[in-house]
């Protein structure tokens, strides 16, 4: 993945040189098709008057604890000036956490994934104060939050203070879950904060510097350069992939003598990595990591971590092993923060692992305290708990028996209040709730009593699911809660939620409903796995660009010298540079103020205050840019190596054009077709007289045929790999890398030569056969 951003601009520049008219098409298409508009911020007199009127009203105070995805999303969407807001957090910035693995290896700079909270709130019409401090106690009786400054004590020597609240929004996130494993906190790195990513990056470099010292032994070098990742979830897998690309594409060039000592291991206690993803993605990721030389050990539970060794227990055998390492990154899920655990004990939730809220994100039993993000979970009400109340709501005449028509007035409220019903209908392939009821009607009277109603809904609660602790969930919860606060007064007068089945009237708001938009798993080598709604799975380079596009649309990107160095190489590259760095895409909203397109191209400027039109313009432009990027990728396919025939090997020449050449020991079937098939200059044989003494190897560096493995093994060295191939009459070539060996048989497909492959190919030939007809690679 590392270098993908730069390689795209290089490809775009090459395409521009080959297709000079393409630049005009891109510019016209992006500007006209994208509907790019700029807006000046206009505040009407009526809006100002409204704000002035609000200043005379006593405002409610909202205290927000945390500046992560949930807290920041709440702040960005809260726009009712009847609130005074105070934010308390030890971090004075919002961090775009999905890119933290990229920060650890320098693909993305730390400053590019953070945005100061004060920048986010300074343009809002509501009063927002920020305190860089840590909350250590929540007092719900007196409605106070006790805080402690993370800075040095003030002039009076005080570092603790309290903050009063009318409404409290707890969005403090979670900490890394160590499962109380001895030595983890003292010896492992975590990947939760920007500071963690920076420390990991420094530790990687320190490991290479230490291993390069002349006083370090061979065994010690192997230990120092053994990088271990614990946890096969999305974060652990992405970090392992990023680390592999960083080491083999960058660091090996700086430390070539250390190449043979490098090893990356991914430990997972379960049966597979990426277990929350589709099995197709899991299988692809495991095979790709095996090909890349990343050792994946599943069923391995870490029992202890010292400063030099990790103790493992194999789940299948119970065997205990010690694994020497140089650096370990711990990524095994999340745990509850101590301050939240203490708060849970105060409110009677001490026996729970995570703080519970209702469907409106209110902490159970505390109507003015809300919790969202990783620090809380929604305790969805069970249908069977309210089954009698639901039946009574529909039975207005108290007859004890109802037909399907009697339920029609409350069906929508039932489905909205209990989302598990919709999941149950989907699993049973029923079109609607009426079909579910009809399946339990009395055959003669076509009526349903309370017992039949219970029977119809008896399996519904088994479909209840907890929401995953992801940034996507937290951001949606923050936005939902802000909208509730914005419409608090309106909905108190005119409730819009479902019926209160245990009480009278309606709930003020509709309950929170999470909408899953898909998930990504970057796997390195500019390949990403995407699992999108509708059971759609995409794996490869196209998913990588989809990943870039989605994250670019959510991240307020800052200028990077990597892009600045390429600015001006062509009109096309300048346009793309401007689109990425100047549009300031931020949480699917875009703020156009005074924008100047580079290279003198003008754009239509309008004055408006219509936020909907602004968002629509941005969305169309972004989709158009993605479409054009796809076209560029297709045109830039000339730089890819996938057009050579069987047994042939492809490489890119100095002009980045693919060339095909037969490897040593092979020659072309058709001398007039250099891109065609190659045939062996010896006679492959698996007859009865086959003897390993008849064969030897041509050793080829950085050449591989990635597909067609029929066997693999974990030899101790290259000799074991060669010996295994010699003894196997079917083996035509053995590929060796990082203590792993893959055997392949003829014909060989998709051959590639690239210095980044970091492999050695042992191509078998029969002794005494004629020499190769073409120059060896």
Automatic annotation (TrEMBL):
GO terms for cellular component: mitochondrial inner membrane; peroxisome. It comes from the Eukaryota. It catalyses: a ubiquinone + NADH + H(+) = a ubiquinol + NAD(+). It is found in: Mitochondrion inner membrane; Peroxisome. PROSITE patterns: EF_HAND_1, EF_HAND_2. It is a peripheral membrane protein. GO terms for molecular function: calcium ion binding; NADH dehydrogenase activity. Keywords: Calcium, FAD, Flavoprotein, Membrane, Mitochondrion, Mitochondrion inner membrane, NAD, Oxidoreductase, Peroxisome, Transit peptide. Gene3D superfamilies: 3.50.50.100. It holds the Pfam family Pyr_redox_2. The keyword Zinc does not apply. InterPro entries: EF-hand-dom_pair, EF_Hand_1_Ca_BS, EF_hand_dom, FAD/NAD-bd_sf, FAD/NAD-binding_dom, NDH-2. Residues 382-417 form the EF-hand domain. Belongs to the NADH dehydrogenase family. This is NAD(P)H dehydrogenase B4. The lineage of its organism: Eukaryota, Viridiplantae, Streptophyta, Embryophyta, Tracheophyta.
